[in-house]
Specification:
The chain is α/β, with parallel strands linked by helices. The chain has a single domain, classed as Luciferase-like domain (TIM Barrel), CATH 3.20.20.30. About 35% of the residues lie in helices and about 20% in strands. The protein has an eight-stranded parallel beta barrel with strand order 1-2-3-4-7-8-10-14, surrounded by seven helices. A hairpin with a 2-residue loop joins strand 11 and strand 12. The longest helix has 19 residues. It is globular and about 70 Å long.
Length: about 350
């Protein structure tokens, strides 16, 4: 099976010169339009990045359901939902409903999330931290409850005084197969191994929250290899799936650096959230150059899907043109060909457009 490609959008809106996305309404409706255009081009997936308290997409399932109603083939999903902010059982209800609407095309990426702009964050949403590492422990615990719920586990007991029955209750609706399409956004090698043990697919982050001296793609490839080894040790019956993200700026005659947000950056190491972290580079230049550099990327070669992150403020027409250039000139170099993948077939490598 060849590599799959998708696009990833933050759904930002700004009232500033150069932005074609000035309101939340713009961001939502334009995301639907871009997903339709991506499907026509042949892309395999449309993914949303979720943030809270910011002028970006925050509630994925109404939007994913709307995209599902307007498309037929393309997989739809998240990369990622911050589980520190989620009620796992309510999330299970919404995810199952969206998956049924999409006829099984949903791919849900979860994570512990990155530090946000809020002082109290999840606590303001009503969630209290647990001991030790509050962020990681809360997110992983919520993910485990969510996985159990969408897999049909009993999460409560029926009240015999009201139902005249005794026994356990499961979350409704249930969507068969959804549990096999859950991903974990991992920023370390150890977290990738944890995801493998739970049977989750791997979304490898655009940053690695550890520094070993290896280049970003080599460190990420090592994470992927350790994840697959851990998956094999668990004896899961289905194959593990991995996506990676890359920032890509393909520059052609009609696609130049027209927006201030497009800033090419090299690979970086910095202190992020109190730990040494390594960030991947931006792949910028003529499409042939971008294609050759991505083809040489160790993590891209090891992955099953690549997500290209689009700067949605450029507007639907410009973002569509970017996706066309990627599909025609860049993606074939990493093993992609348009083939009408179903929702099951997601990720083999991910690329981001800053």
């Amino acid at each position: 099976m060849g590599v799959k490609i998708g696009f990833l959008t933050f759904g930002s809106w700004k009232t500033e010169p150069g932005s074609s996305t000035c309101t939340a309404t713009d961001a939502l409706l334009q995301t639907i339009e871009l997903a339709q255009a991506a499907e026509e081009i042949g892309f395999d997936g449309a993914f949303l990045r979720i943030h809270h308290y910011e002028q970006r997409l925050a509630s994925p399932f109404p939007l994913l359901s709307a995209i599902a109603a307007k498309t037929k083939r393309i997989a739809i999903g998240t990369a990622v939902i911050d589980m520190r902010y989620e009620n796992p059982f309510h999330l299970a209800e919404e995810a199952a409903a969206a998956d049924l609407i999409s006829a099984g095309r949903l791919q849900i990426g979860l994570s512990r999330g990155a530090p946000g702009i809020a002082v109290h964050g999840p606590e303001a949403f009503g969630y209290q931290p647990v001991d030790r590492d509050p962020d990681a422990d809360r997110a992983r615990h919520m993910a485990e409850l969510f996985l159990a719920a969408i897999s049909g586990a009993e999460v409560d007991q029926a009240d015999p005084n009201r139902t005249r029955i005794r026994g356990g209750l499961t979350i409704q609706p249930q969507s068969p197969g959804l549990a096999e399409r859950i991903w974990w956004g991992a920023g370390t090698r150890a977290t990738g191994q944890w995801a493998a043990r739970l049977g989750m697919n791997l979304q490898s982050s655009t940053r690695m929250m550890e520094e070993t001296g290896l280049s970003f793609d080599q460190l990420q490839e090592q994470q992927i290899r350790m994840y697959r080894e851990a998956w094999a040790e668990q004896g899961h019956e289905r194959a593990a799936r991995v996506s990676v993200s890359r920032s890509v700026l393909p520059v052609t005659g009609d696609l130049c650096r027209a927006y201030p947000g497009w800033r090419a950056q090299g690979e970086q190491t910095t202190v992020f959230a109190g730990v040494q972290a390594r960030f991947g580079k931006t792949f910028e230049g003529e499409p042939d150059l971008v294609a050759s550099e991505l083809a040489a990327d160790a993590a891209v070669r090891a992955a099953d899907m690549v997500l290209f992150t689009v700067s949605n403020e450029l507007g639907v027409d410009c973002c569509t043109r970017i996706l066309e250039v990627i599909a025609e000139h860049v993606a074939p170099a990493i093993g992609w060909s348009p083939g009408g993948a179903s929702g099951d077939g997601m990720p083999r490598a991910t690329a981001e457009l800053a």
